[in-house]
Amino acid sequence: MALSWHDDDSTFRGYVFRVEDLPAEFQTSERWRDYLFANTVPGHVIDDISMRDKAERNTGELLEQSWPADSQQVAVLQRICKEGRQGVYSFNPDDHSGAHNCVTWVTSRATEALGEVLPKVRQGRIKLMAEVLRSRQNQRFTS
Amino acid sequence: MSKTIQGFREKDYGLFIDLTDAMSSVSIDRKSGNLVLQEGAGHDRFNGALITSDFCHGFTLTTTTEGTWVVALQYGDHQSHVLGATGDEVGALQWLKRAWDIIRSNQSTEQSTEIIFASSPASTMQDCLLQQH
Q1: What's the predicted TM-score (pTM) here?
Q2: How confident is the model over A108-118, as pLDDT tens digits?
């Protein structure tokens, strides 16, 4: 999940973990999840070029929701979504105070800048957030 | 689930690999040389995983008995992660060389090894040589 805003340019921000911050025995595709379900590692805000690419290609695979934002709100987003190390990352963020995964990070940043535009979902599960976004899209299409 | 590469792409801000079931599964940021894996669901896949340029040690491109090519990332302490399989040897080689140039130019510490890509259709895993700088 990513957050983007559009003024003179388009900015995409995502929240990820660094594989090198996992203990060596968990730095494999088979074991990384095990560590992040029970522990935290430093989180990192990135220029999310993967999401930018998907958005530009407009393949229909993205679930999107957009809100109007004034210049002050964009300034807040720019301030709180700076690239670099930020907070701690976990797959069970509800169990670790202050921790985020990509879903809870986007929700918290959007809330800080725009108000409560997205609901919190249990443990920041992407499937639960996808259900929210999908239902909102369906409402738009049917209204 | 096996990872089949649909294509290799470049844009002005990054390089990408698409899997048949996960677009932009691999992205490399030209500015930082960092690599992000968003490979979708599966036990052999990373998601939301950032591998910094300093943590990358190179790529391997190896043949299978079926004649396809397996692209893998070498990272960390002798770790290897399969990015996908392709029948496009030339496209893979071109993309990997450009990707490695970007990664290497962003590394703050000189890596001790460099991947030499296997290019013979008859090559095997052993043909992927690690050459000392």
Answers
A1: 0.89
A2: 999 999 999 99
